[in-house]
Design brief:
Layout (H helix, E strand, L loop, with lengths): L6 H15 L11 E6 L10 H19 L3 E3 L3 E2 L4 H10 L3 H18 L10 E2 L3 H16 L3 E11 L4 E3 L4 E2 L2 E2 L7 E10 L5 H6 L8 H11 L1 E11 L5 E6 L10 E4 L4 H7 L3 H10 L6 H6 L4 E9 L6 E7 L10 E4 L5 H9 L35 H14 L3 E7 L4 E2 L1 E2 L9 E4 L2 E4 L25 H4 E3 L2 E3 L3 E2 L1 H4 L3 H4 L12 H6 L2 E7 L5 H15 L9 E7 L2 E3 L2 E2 L10 H8 L1 H11 L6 E2 L2 H19 L14 H24 L2 H14 L11 H18 L4 H12 L23 E8 L2 E9 L4 H9 L2 H7 L6 E5 L3 E5 L1
Parallel strand pairs: 1-2, 1-24, 3-4, 12-14, 24-25, 26-28, 29-32
Antiparallel strand pairs: 5-6, 5-9, 7-8, 9-17, 10-11, 10-13, 10-16, 12-15, 13-14, 18-23, 19-20, 19-22, 21-22, 26-27, 29-30, 31-32
The protein binds one RNA strand through helix 7, helix 10, strand 17, strand 18 and helix 17.
Amino acid sequence: MTAEYNPKKIEESAQKKWIEDGRFEAKPDDREKYYCLSMFPYPSGKLHMGHVRNYTIGDVISRYKRMNNFNVFQPMGWDAFGLPAENAAIANEVSPKEWTNDNIEHMKQQLISLGLGYDWSKELRTCEPKYYKWEQLIFKKFFEKGLVYKKKSLVNWDPIDETVLANEQVIDGKGWRSGAPVEIKEIDQWFIKITDYADELLSSLNEVDWPENVKTMQENWIGKSHGAEIKYQIKDSEEYLTAFSTRPDTIYGVSFVAISPNHKIALNLSEHDKKIESFLKQCKETSSAEADMAKAEKLGIDTGMKVIHPLTDEEIPVWIGNFVLLDYGTGVVMGVPGHDQRDFEFASKYNLDIKQVISSSTNDELPVLTKGILLNSDKYNDLDSDSASKKIIEELSEKKLGEGLIQFRLRDWGVSRQRYWGCPIPVIYENGDAKLVEENELPVVLPELPKDSPPIPLSQNEEFYKISDGIERETDTFDTFMDSSWYYARFTSADNDSEIFDENSKYWLPVDLYIGGIEHAILHLLYSRFFHKALRDMGMVEGNEPFKKLLTQGMVLKDGTKMSKSKGNTVDPQSYIDKYGADTVRLYMMFTAPPEQSLEWSESSVEGASRFIKKVWNLVICRNYEDINIPDNFSKEELDLRRKTHTTLKKVTNDFETRFSFNTAIASIMELLNAIPDDFKDKDASNSKKYCLNETIIIILKTLNPIAPHVSEFLWNHFYNLNAPEEIESSWPKVEDSLLEVSEFELVIQINGKVRGKTTARIEDTQNQIEEMAKKIENVAINLDDKNIKKVIYIKGKIINFVI
RNA sequence: GGGGAUGUGGUGGAACUGGUAGACACGCUUGGCUUAGAACCAAGUGCCGCAAGGCGUGGGGGUUCGACUCCCUCCAUCCCUACCA
């Protein structure tokens, strides 16, 4: 008589109990704390596979830590502002708020049905005034600290819809809705001086336990480079064009200077020159996204202007180049076609001089991109690049035509968005002067939309922005990266409406483990790190870094590409939860690939996960373990099972603890289950066999608990109620080291690195004994064939290799 | 264009520190159970070959007694590229 495994029933009752007991609600106590955070989702409607994977990883680790007596805090919330809500509002005629909140309610139920152990008492939603009130306060404090300023900056402008478009809304240079060619427009926007922290953002990467690739990506993004600012006097003028270069050693190779199409000189020239005017118009049609710009054909136009080379006094032509960014450096670059790929292509196209000023160690073909020895460089000839750079900077400094400079690739963070569904920027303009809204008047609440209205930007909502004559509110909203840059800290005091961070924050911060998609490796993580440092400097949080350890999980793919609606290759996790239960979906997710790697969705493997759970169910459900005594001694077969049980436990513990390698942990639990001999499962098996099986079942259920918590807890309570009072999640089992010792091993015998035989040997055998034994193996003897043995390599406990 | 990854059977993956390549699972084949099917159980399953044996971790080269692992080079795919989140 075996009861049928019914995941729906088991899971619903377990989830209900967990919530009733408040099992995952965390309070500071004297245990070691563990703040485990998974990146909160954008409430797009329903969970996708990436969420399921991310949150299962976090939950497995949280449950494992809880079993190891950590005080675990695992909260969840919603990154609730953003573009899709506005799109949905237009498409479905619901307000962004309604749409967002409906989605949250649905997705929250999905998270609960996955058995994720969140502390829902700390749930937060970024679109609620009680959250963004504090964000507005932080912005005010940033402003007071001098970290905020306004400047003109470029946006994609849709001339038909008269709106600013996000890069993803620009398709082949056209607005996605209107189809009109997008224009690049310059408007006044709010910026945050993240560059003030550039150096520290770089150096304190040493303090965190993050994957090396993420650290490298951040390093390269911040991009600290040593170089020089070099001033080129404009001919017949007192003015200069200042260019930054990391290669001042190539200064004798400069054959043109290129300025950005948005540089004020270019704009001035276009007023009197039709050709330049039409060129600038053409430039405005290229999307401002970096990837698009890089792919776009490099175009330029000669301004006819000349500048004076600071060392040779030669006249150099000034061009306008569509590849020069105004926002980066000075908006001016010096063109060295002999030693820069892009400049080389540009010069070849427009027949500009290409001079070699650095020797090449390998071949003479230009451009030579490596450093080397200078030539054609007057008195600097024969110096190496580095010392030449130094001396050239000295000369430029003396002439007051340049200076050595450290430059960052990182640019200040533009936080203004001209949209409705976002956090209002708390600024009031009095006759054009910007003033921050007083603290006691926060929050500036996002106005409700008029009934049946599409989401109109705040700039079209006079009721919102007009306070009185000459006094108006700011109508930009914040970039949603602002919302997600500090939520990790707010979780720790999410239920406190009188303080942004409180005593609990001190206890829980920093986040011990942060888990999320690799796609956030740069922007989100960099902004959050910046926020933490700025908040620290304002005395609001402690420590230098928000996230101690980082786990970046790979994408869930189908047919080799990211699941997406546009490709029509999405798989809805809900149907699998409904069909197989949450435990199976969790087990599948953890078994199919290691967390950092991308996971290829496979329908039939889900079936396999379900089968394994049923096997465990069938093993445990029909057992009756009354009256088992501790045996005095064990047979060899019994000891073998006990050894297998404890080596498995050791491996699983190691996989959880040091590698987050859940797929191999699960594989070894499966192996253990397969290793139980049939006669141990007999109803009338001996007491000692039952004892060993008992031990194995305990370890299987315990180690499975973080991954498949519902079924393991159910079976535990069923199986264990007679034997002990312990709750399954109360402790992680201990390895009995004495059971692990082995005296024999399988010796592999190689000849010239090829396997020619295997035999059983004892660990304590000497190399000589091993050699003699190996030579007697038939296939080894045939292959050795009296040949001269040049060398013998013996790796203890593993392998012996004869070199002939 | 720049930056970061990945590449192993029919499939997902394992091999953690340079030491038996393919654990575990899916699929498939055969057999058992069944009126039949599903489910379940047992055995087999990298490729070529009747076999002996040979080949084999994206391609090419190198270091080593020994390379999925280290080095060089090429190719393919994926992610990020500052207004998707």
